[in-house]
Amino acid sequence: MDIIISNASDKPIYEQITSQVKNMIINGMLQEGDALPSMRLLAKELRISVITTKRAYEDLERDGFIETVAGKGSFVAGKNVEFIKEEQLRIAEEYLQKAVHVAKSGGISLDELVEIITLLYREDI
Suppose 65 and one of 4, 19, 60, 108 were both cysteines; which one would form an S-S bond, judging by CB atoms 3.0 to 4.6 Å apart? Predict the structure, then answer.
């Protein structure tokens, strides 16, 4: 599993792990039932604390992306990918609604806002 941690990112490390694993599941790189590395192994590979990987795995399990079986490990959950995408869309809509409110109150035009969103979307994350 290729996870890249950026120390320059303003996102905490556990969130970087969580978002990358979610993307791998949504994009089909990880399939239902696939095993994830153990928390200890992932921590060792990324050279981070086990507590950090534990937090990421807990968030992934809470959001329904993975299932953890005691003594066996963590696996990609058998959840519907469309449901997951729908949930991500709902979250994006919440953030965009806030952005629209800020833009309107700040006198930013729709064209300017669309341009900003387009630039941000095309940036490498």
Answer: 60
